[in-house]
Structures are given as C-alpha cells and as structure tokens.
C-alpha cells in the first residue's frame, strides 16, 4: 500500500467535495423542508380564549394536512405552525405582526387575528412584508383598502347583516304571527360590531320598515349594564340586536335583562355570545332562545370533526374560531399545491387565482377570492341557544336543529 | 311611560347602579390606600392581588365543596370570607420576601425613596401573577355564580304604575359587605393599638422606632391588610363579573384614581374616591354617549386634581 502524502490527501478531499455536495442535495430532495405557516392570535389578555380555540383549529388542520402526505407539489413537505400571541390591544397586535415578519422570514402565509380591530392593524404590517394573511374577521374595511395579500374567508359584516336581517324577520313573522316593527341596537365599539350595525342603521332597517328606538354604543368591557338595559326597559322594542365581543358583556347584559324582567327576542352578531365559556358564567336558562348570526359554525356534515375537537381538546362544540382556522389551513394547502413553491409571493399569487370549488369548511360560496380578497359567495350561519347548546339553525341545508322564536 | 317618567327612572336607576358599583370600587381603593396611600409603596400588582382573591374564592367554592355545603346563595359569600385570610397570608409573605427589600429603612438613601425599585418589582410581580395564573388556571372566563346576580329587589313604583328602581341582589349584598368591611377596618385603624402603630409607622417611621414600634412589622401588616381587603373586593365583584387572569388590569387604574381622588393617606377618602368613580361612571351615561363612560371618570379625576390637589380628604384631615 503506497503511503499517502499530504498533497495527495488534500487533492483527494478537494476532488471528493463536489460529490459530497451532490449527496447533500439528494438528501435534501428526499427529505422535504418544512413549510412554515404563521398563526397570529390573542393568547393572553381578555381575548386569550378565542385565540386558544383558533390555535386548536389550526393544529388540527396542520395534523390532517401532514397526515394526508403534506404538500405533494413540494415533495410531500410537511406544514409547521408558528404561533404568535397578538395580545389584547391593537398596539400589541401590530408589534406582534412586526415581530412575526422580522423573526420568521421563512413564513409563507399566516392566519389571524380574531378581532377585526387587530386584523386591521396586523394587515398593515403583513401587507408591507407581502405576507399573505387569511382572516375570519368581519370588518368590511379589512378588504376595502386595496391590499393584495389579505384574504377574508368570512362574509363581511355588512354582507352578514344584509343576509341575516330578512331571515330573522321571516322567522319572527312565521313563529309569532307578527312582523317586528321596532328594534334596539346595543353594540360595543369594536370594528366588526360597528361595521355590522352601520349597514343596518344606514340602509337595512329602513328597507325592512323597522324603526330603531334604542341606539347605544359602549366601550368593552362594561362595568355594569344597568344604563343600557334601562333604555330597553323604557322603549320595549320588538327585537334587540346586541353585539358584544367580550363574554363578560354578554353576561352582564343577559343577567340585567332577567333582573328587569325583560323578555325581548335577542339577536347577536358574532360568536362572543355562543362561546363555551359563556356557560361558565351565565345560567343556560337566560341563554335559551338567543340567536346569533355568525360567519361560520360547526354544521351538518362536520360531525366527525366536531367530535374530534371534543375528544382531543375538550371543546363542547365547534365555534367559528376552530372551524374557520381549520379551513384556513386547507386553503393554504391548496394554494401551496398550486404554487408549487414555498415562498410568500408564490402563495399569494396562488391564493388570488385559486379555484378550489365549493367551500367545505365554510358556509356557502367557493374557495375562490375576488379582486378585493373576499371569498366568493361567502354565506353565514344563524345559531341559536337550545337546551344549553348553540346549534346551527340556518341555512336549512347545514342546520343541525330547527329554529324556535323566543317567546316575549 | 311618558318622557319625564323615563328620565326620572333612568336617573334613579343610574344612581342606584353608581352606588352599588361605587361601593365595590371603594373597597378596592381602600385596599390600595393601605399600601400606596399610607405606606407610599407603588404597587402595580394590586389588581392582580384582586384577581388572586377571585380565583381563591372560586376554588374554595367549587374545589372545597363550599357550594355543596352552603348552597348556591350563601356558599359564594362563605368562600369569599374564607379567601380573605389566604390572601392576608399571601400579602404578608410577598412583603416579607420581596417588597421589604425596596421599602422602609433600606431605601432611605435611594433616589426617589425606592419608588423606582418598587415600580419595577411590583410590575414584575404583576407579570408573574398574570402569566402564572394563565398557566395554572387557563384562559377560560369563570365567575362565582350565584342566583342573586340576576335577581333584583324592585323598589316602587313611585309614579303611578311606573318609575321603579331595581337593586340587584348580588351587587346589593356586595355593597353591604363592602361598607361593613370598611367600617371594620376604620375601627381597627382608629381605635386599636395595632391601628395606632400602623399610623405611627406610616407618619414617622424614625420616631416610631424610638417609641418601640417594629416599623418593618407594621409595614408588613399594612401590606397584608391591603392585599386582603382588595382580594375581598375581588371576590365580591366576581359574584357579578366574570374574571380571567388579566382582569386586574381593568381595575388597577380605577384603584389609583380612587386613592388620589380621596386624598393620599386617607382610608375613608379612598372609599369615597372609589364611590365617586362608580357614580360618575354610571351617571355620565345620562348625558354622554355610553362609550365615554370611562373618559368621564378621568375628566372628573383631572378636574378634581386641578381644583383640589389634595383630594377629598387630605392626609391632614385624616390624621387630626
């Protein structure tokens, strides 16, 4: 055996380096990199609970996509969730978004941020970073600003009010034999609530021949609901539209109405009044009959998913926060498959041109976005508290129970 | 109802709500007054001590079976009373282990009499309590449920068949307990040997030492009582108000505003400061949009600070 000199040893190493480099490339192709998706939701402060449920939905979605073979167009790349806490104020949400885009340059898309007020602030940051963001928030403003990288899966607040009002009036007329004529609106001053009531106050009430006898806006959280309920007692409306985003406000309002012996059919918008936590604080008797128009909810055909959420996370029912965030992950899976590359621009472009057919995890419409970034044909669900559970009662094809008009 | 009847009922109802809410705010403010008003310790964790009081009362009620033993009506109040000594001990330990290092004789030579260190330390304690509670108790909203929170005593009608005032039973009892607790504390502070030593230690620590008073112990006791009183207020509030680990943030500013309004160093002043905040918060809705409720509190606060900087009851009034 000839003795290897220092020069020949160096030459051998130099000659073999390209081979090693090639080996590395082959190994990388065989083991696809993970694709990072951000979830920017409130995990601390008064909105921590909905944020936690959104995280559950996202984790279920990630697990299901990965179990199904990951992103096939990327060689079976697995999705990885990056979770950030956007806190309980718009300032914290904006700071968290800045942290997200700075610290996670490999994120290809994100989902968030529960409250419309947060989403409005967060998308100012994600838009500048060209990071596509899917949101379940309602405010019309989110997709009114000409942003190219924001995609709204829910029907906007204005559209929801437009869809919900005739349905509720028809229901009232059918069940009670009398068309409501006067309404009260009590809303908090968060962006989605304001957007919902704006459409009603400006057009819809007049279009449907309704007179508004109480119009109150409050800053959440309330310390006491007495002055607001006093207005209801004085004017006795036929219908009461109540739009809280904090559960404590729902509790204070419903308990104060019971205390004042007021039995007015109560219709909400959004999920605050139907969160499982409501049962920790409010007597189910006070909730019975209360309705809410929600952009998404656990519906007929999702029983297995609802059961899995109950089993794995202990959630008694599937709220919008869980199902919409779960659906977001599947939308992103479709966009990644279409893009065939794991970068923001590719995913954003794919989302703009995506045509995923009828929506499976959202009520009505398709998995397709219009030029503003709104999901085409997005519908809504109307839920109602019945026997201690908020169940979907509208639309008929997705309903899990028949609606009942609350007795006055 | 006619418009005058609506106006009168609205006023009476807002007044009643203001008094009931104000009584609880007053009790919270008295707890802080013991610590901030008298001992001059800046305590940003006071709201979180209140939160702990809520959770301890909740777990005594549900976890120790007080609910089963005393029923849903009396049980919550028994649990709240049992939680108070737990928080008294907690306050005592927090002072002994942490706060004592940035208060009293040790801080005599420090810039700002140790207030900077107190600020940082109590903010740290607040963060630990908030986030620790979220880890331990979760982010779910809970409340001390009682049927009294949705029941009322109806007083009236005063004008024909109309104009009644509804007094929420839960809030009414909470207000009654608040007033009793403040009267009890006032008697202890003004009539007992313990109260005299607390006042002496707060007024002139050096002279108190010469008179044989253990100033550190007096400070510790005052801190423990302040923590206990605020926790008691938290428990009473929780019978009507759902809570979560961050609930203290919603009330800590109100507590400081109440103490300053009432007059630094005055126990009764702090109560009236809290009561004023409750009344302004509720009565302002008669003339201003409801969403400006909390703005009205701070406009009123600024006006009083400008017109009467020493607050309603200055320290001099309390001590003479």
How are the SSEs placed, and which strands pair?
The complex is a heterodimer of chains A (408) and B (320).
Chain A: H1 6-30, E1 35-41, H2 48-67, E2 79-85, H3 90-103, E3 107-112, H4 116-128, E4 133-135, E5 150-152, H5 157-176, E6 182-188, H6 191-207, E7 211-218, H7 226-235, E8 239-243, H8 247-259, E9 266-269, H9 278-281, H10 284-287, E10 291-294, H11 303-313, H12 320-339, H13 344-353, E11 381-386, E12 389-394
Parallel strand pairs in A: 1-2, 1-3, 3-4, 4-5, 6-7, 6-8, 8-9, 9-10
Antiparallel strand pairs in A: 10-11, 11-12
Chain B: H1 3-38, H2 46-63, H3 66-97, H4 115-137, E1 152-155, E2 165-168, H5 169-191, H6 193-203, H7 205-210, H8 215-238, H9 248-262, H10 267-283, H11 293-307, H12 315-319
Antiparallel strand pairs in B: 1-2
Description:
The complex is a heterodimer of chains A (408) and B (320). Chain A has 408 residues and is an alpha/beta fold. Chain A has two domains: 197 residues, Rossmann fold (3-Layer(aba) Sandwich); 154 residues, Rossmann fold (3-Layer(aba) Sandwich), CATH 3.40.50.2300. Chain A is built from 13 helices and twelve strands. In chain A, strands 7-6-8-9-10-11-12 form a seven-stranded mixed beta sheet, sandwiched between helices. The longest helix of chain A is centred in the N-terminal third of the chain and has 25 residues. Chain B is mainly α and 320 residues long. Chain B has one domain. Chain B contains twelve helices and two strands, in the order ααααββαααααααα. Chain B has a two-stranded antiparallel sheet with strand order 1-2. In chain B, α3 packs antiparallel against α8 and α6 packs across α8. Chain B is globular and about 70 Å long. Chain B starts with a helix and ends with a helix. Classes of the chains: A alpha/beta (408), B mainly alpha (320). At the A-B interface, α2, β7, α7 and α8 of A face α1, α4 and α10 of B.
What is the straight-line distance between the termini of chain A?
102 Å
* Main sheet properties of chain A: 7 strands, mixed
Low-confidence stretches of chain B: none
Average pLDDT rating of chain B = 89
The main β sheet of chain B shows up as:
2 strands, antiparallel
Could you estimate the helical fraction of the residues of chain B in percent? over 70%
Shape of chain B: globular
- How much beta of chain A, percentage-wise? 15-25%
C-alpha Rg of chain A (nearest Å): 25 Å
Order of helices and strands of chain B: HHHHEEHHHHHHHH
Classify the secondary structure makeup of chain A into a structural class: alpha/beta
CATH architecture descriptor text of the largest domain in chain A? 3-Layer(aba) Sandwich
Oligomer state equals heterodimer
Number of helices of chain B: 12
Give the total of domains of chain B: 1
Biggest interface, CB < 8 A: A-B, 39 and 46 residues
State Rg of chain B.
20 Å
Shape of chain A: globular
Mean pLDDT of chain A: 89
Strand order of the largest sheet of chain A: 7-6-8-9-10-11-12
- The first-level CATH class name of the largest domain in chain A: Alpha Beta
């Amino acid at each position: 055996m000839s003795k290897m000199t220092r020069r020949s040893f160096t030459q051998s190493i130099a000659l073999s380096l390209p081979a090693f480099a090639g080996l590395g490339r082959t190994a990388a192709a065989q083991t696809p990199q993970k694709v990072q998706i951000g979830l920017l939701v409130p995990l601390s402060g008064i909105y921590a609970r909905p944020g936690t449920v959104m995280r559950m939905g996202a984790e279920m979605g990630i697990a299901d996509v990965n179990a199904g073979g990951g992103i096939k167009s990327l060689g079976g790349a697995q999705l990885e969730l990056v979770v950030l806490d956007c806190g309980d104020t718009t300032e914290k949400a904006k700071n968290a978004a800045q942290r997200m885009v700075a610290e996670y340059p490999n994120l290809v898309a994100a989902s968030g941020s529960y409250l419309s007020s947060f989403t409005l602030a967060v998308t100012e940051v994600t838009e500048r970073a060209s990071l596509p963001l899917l949101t379940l928030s309602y405010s019309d403003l989110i997709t009114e600003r000409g942003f190219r990288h924001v995609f709204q899966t829910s029907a906007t607040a204005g559209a929801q009010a437009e869809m919900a009002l005739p349905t509720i009036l028809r229901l009232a007329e059918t069940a009670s034999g009398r068309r409501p004529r006067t309404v009260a609106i009590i809303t908090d001053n968060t962006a989605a609530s304001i957007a919902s009531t704006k459409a009603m106050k400006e057009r819809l009430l007049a279009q449907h021949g309704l007179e508004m006898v109480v119009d109150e806006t409050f800053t959440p959280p309330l310390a006491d609901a007495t002055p607001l309920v006093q207005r209801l007692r004085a004017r006795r409306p036929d219908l009461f539209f109540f739009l809280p985003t904090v559960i404590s406000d729902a509790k204070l309002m419903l308990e104060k109405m019971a205390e004042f012996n007021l039995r007015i059919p109560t219709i909400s918008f959004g999920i605050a009044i139907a969160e499982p936590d409501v049962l920790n604080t409010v007597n189910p008797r006070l909730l019975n009959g209360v309705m809410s128009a929600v952009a998404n909810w656990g519906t007929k055909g999702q029983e297995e998913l609802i059961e899995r959420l109950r089993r794995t996370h202990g959630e008694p029912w599937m709220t919008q926060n869980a199902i919409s965030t779960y659906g977001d992950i599947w939308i992103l899976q479709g966009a990644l498959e279409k893009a065939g590359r794991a970068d923001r621009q590719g995913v954003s472009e794919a989302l703009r041109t995506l045509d995923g057919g009828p929506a499976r995890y959202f009520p009505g419409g398709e998995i397709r976005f219009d030029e503003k970034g709104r999901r085409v044909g997005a519908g809504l669900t109307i839920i109602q508290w019945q026997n201690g559970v908020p169940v979907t009662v509208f639309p008929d094809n997705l309903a899990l129970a028949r609606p009942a008009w609350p007795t006055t | 109802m006619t418009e005058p009847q609506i106006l009168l009922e609205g006023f009476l109802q807002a007044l009643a709500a203001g008094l009931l809410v104000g009584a609880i705010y007053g009790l919270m403010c008295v707890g802080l007054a013991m610590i901030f008003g008298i001992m001059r310790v800046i305590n940003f964790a006071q709201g979180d001590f209140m939160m702990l009081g809520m959770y301890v009362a909740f777990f005594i009620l549900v976890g120790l079976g007080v609910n089963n033993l005393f029923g849903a009506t009396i049980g919550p109040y028994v649990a709240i009373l049992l939680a108070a000594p737990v928080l008294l001990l907690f306050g005592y330990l927090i002072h002994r282990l942490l706060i004592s290092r940035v208060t009293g004789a040790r801080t005599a030579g420090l810039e700002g009499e140790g207030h900077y260190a107190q600020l940082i330390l109590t903010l740290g304690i607040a963060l630990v309590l908030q986030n620790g509670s979220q880890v331990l108790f979760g982010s779910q909203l809970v409340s001390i449920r009682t049927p009294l929170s949705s029941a009322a005593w109806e007083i009236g009608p005063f004008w024909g068949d109309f104009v009644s005032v509804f007094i929420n039973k839960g809030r009414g009892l909470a207000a009654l307990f608040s007033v009793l607790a403040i009267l009890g504390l006032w008697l202890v502070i003004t009539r007992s040997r313990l109260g005299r030593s607390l006042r002496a230690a707060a007024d002139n620590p050096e002279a108190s030492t010469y008179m044989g008073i253990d100033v550190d112990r007096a400070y510790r006791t005052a801190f423990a009582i302040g923590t206990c009183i605020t926790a008691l207020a938290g428990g009473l509030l929780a019978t009507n108000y759902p809570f979560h680990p961050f609930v203290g943030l919603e009330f800590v500013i109100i507590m400081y505003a109440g103490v300053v309004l009432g007059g630094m160093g005055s126990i009764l002043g702090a109560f009236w400061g809290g009561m004023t905040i409750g009344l302004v918060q509720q009565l302002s809705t008669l003339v201003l949009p409801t969403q400006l409720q909390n703005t009205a509190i701070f406009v009123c606060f600024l006006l009083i600070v400008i017109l009467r900087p020493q607050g309603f009851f200055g320290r001099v009034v309390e001590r003479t």
